[in-house]
Amino acid sequence: MARIEIARRSLMLGGAGVFAAPLVAGAQAPAVKLGILQPVTGALSQDGEYGRLGAELAIAEINAGGGIRALGGARIETVFGDARSNPEGGVAEVEKMQAEGVVAVVGGFASPICLAASQAASRYNLPYVVDVGVSDQIVSRGLANTFRFGPGFGVVTNTALDNLVALNDAAGKPSRTVVIVHEDGLFGSGMARLLNAELPKRGFEVLETIAHPTPARDMNNVALRIRSLRPDLVIPSSYYAEFVLLSRTMQQQRIRPKGIYCVLNGAASNYRFVREFPDAANLVMDCNHWPDPRKPKTAELRRAVEAQNRFWLYNVPLNYSAVMLVADALERAGRADRAALTTALAATDGAFTKHIMPYGPTRFVNGQNQAGVPVNTQVQGGDIKVIFPRDFADAQAVYPVTG
């Protein structure tokens, strides 16, 4: 019994201490504590709830499948933290997780939360796996503890622009002028700067860039400005509530550009938006995170989500995949030790296949998965269709939009 007591005490230690101890024959392996950080209150609560759902589905699957086999079948135990939709809340929860003795943290959702929370985790050499946060500052600071499985906004924006050019060229170049609408935080402002730099190189004229706060209660002035400028394209980068408000306001004011082409938009690839506001959502395009529809697990996970009368949002597959990444690294590390886990995460390669994103072989460079890529979607007939990449698109884009 002495060894079991030692293992229990070790589990509560922070830092890089070893969490798994030798077991008495027949004893249950000590659980591995995993921090799941999401904003489930405040302006970003919808995204936080669905991020938590994706993580919970992955943890349930891992535990039902025998736990972490390299650790004697250790179960993963969730330590959940509510970031409260702000960076300060994220930092406070990381401190609590450190005290709880978690082996890693997954999540954060918003770029400002991920930036602050991963910095706080680095003080304890605590591995931090970003689920969504797209600001490239997150992985450009040289933090050895921080890993992002999905793409950042640099990769997403360049992909979006390349696909926009291909789309516009194929249609005979009907669009030339653009208005950019973005949330005024770290994510949206960075995106707007990059779009302003790159769109003119690809033959588009940016008529104006319009920033708005999060949360925003009214989009009438933004819509009126778009009406007065009469752009061919509107490119919005906003969180869910703000884009829903903008698109509905444009619909009510009968503002009909040739295309609404979103980049990393919180609503455009979201079945809640499609179901609740089908007319406003129809034919909206997006370049965003999206699971690989060719993988059987994608359909299985979607059925599990919809069986709970919930919507299929990209937060679910991203968090599912991020937790699977941690589990894979724990198997390879062979011990629930923070330093060993960090080393294993950094060494992840193409052998990691238990994710459902449309990525090639996983390879981290400075904490960024080089295989992370976005997908272009369009709302068509009450469904979300993939229009790029061509090799697994299930629809052709409707563009330009008429009427």
Low-confidence stretches: 1-25
Number of helices: 13
Strand pairing plus helix content: what structural class?
A: alpha/beta
Could you state the CATH homologous superfamily of the largest domain?
Answer: Response regulator
Q: Proportion of β residues? A: 15-25%
Order of helices and strands: HEHEHEHEEHEHEHEHEHHEHHHEEEE
The radius of gyration over CA amounts to: 22 Å
What can you tell me about this protein's structure?
This protein is α/β, with parallel strands linked by helices. It folds into 2 domains: 2-151 and 294-369, Response regulator (Rossmann fold, 3-Layer(aba) Sandwich), CATH 3.40.50; 154-288 and 375-392, Response regulator (Rossmann fold, 3-Layer(aba) Sandwich), CATH 3.40.50.2300. 39% of the residues lie in helices and 17% in strands. The protein has 13 helices and 14 strands. It has helices at 2-11, 45-64, 87-100, 111-122, 153-170, 186-198, 220-229, 240-252, 271-276, 278-281, 296-306, 315-333, 338-346; strands at 32-38, 76-82, 104-107, 128-130, 146-148, 177-183, 205-212, 233-237, 259-263, 285-288, 364-365, 368-369, 375-380, 383-388. The strands form 3 sheets. A 7-stranded mixed β-sheet has the order 7-6-8-9-10-13-14, with helices on both faces. A 5-stranded parallel β-sheet has the order 2-1-3-4-5, with helices on both faces. Helix 12 crosses helix 13. The longest helix is centred in the first third of the chain and has 20 residues, at 45-64. It is globular. The chain starts with a helix and ends in a 15-residue tail after the last strand. 51% of the residues are buried. Residues 1-25 have low confidence and may be disordered.
